[in-house]
Model the fold of this input.
Amino acid sequence: MKKFWKILLTLLVLVAALALIFNEPIKVQLVKQVSNSRVTNLTKDQVRQNKLRDASFDFAKVKPITVKQAAKAVLKNNAAAIGKITIPSVGLKLPIVKGVDDTALATGGGTLKPDEKMGEGNYALAGHYMTDKGALFSPIARVQIGDLIYITDLKNVYTYKVDLKQVISPRATWTMNNQPGTKMITLITCADGGANRWLVQGSLVKARVANRSTLAVFG
Done:
């Protein structure tokens, strides 16, 4: 009987170890699947409808993404995508989603304020950092000063040039405030294992009508 329990305990430990090993890769694949789906299939009508949907903007309630949340996002595939963002220099390409609830942030970059408009004021987005350097907002850690950030609502394409990158406290909520006379973008994700935040900001340098040529940068 002792031998049975010893074998059972060994198997349980093995299963737990395998779960830990494969947890992150599974989570990353699920996230990439739903992100790619929303980016590829997004239409102007969907953007218009999604802008009218209710959303949560309480960033303080955001928790680290789990496999369960990622799987739920894939199954529902209904995050309120209202645009796209790409940073070619680091390979970031994601949907922009209204709000910062679990489904939104398991899908792409979420808007931090209910009244945000692309190309105006401080367009602030937040996203999850994952150990996979290409998932969600993880690539932001590799952004350099001078890199270009592109966003679109499928009507216009806005280009921003990065002029600030630094690590900030989670309490530095002033970073998303509008600055008089300034058109800018703010991107925020976790740093130092979640203890701090990466802050990337850029200034608007160009706004163009969305067409096949200007949208090509989004893939």
Summary: The mean pLDDT is 84.
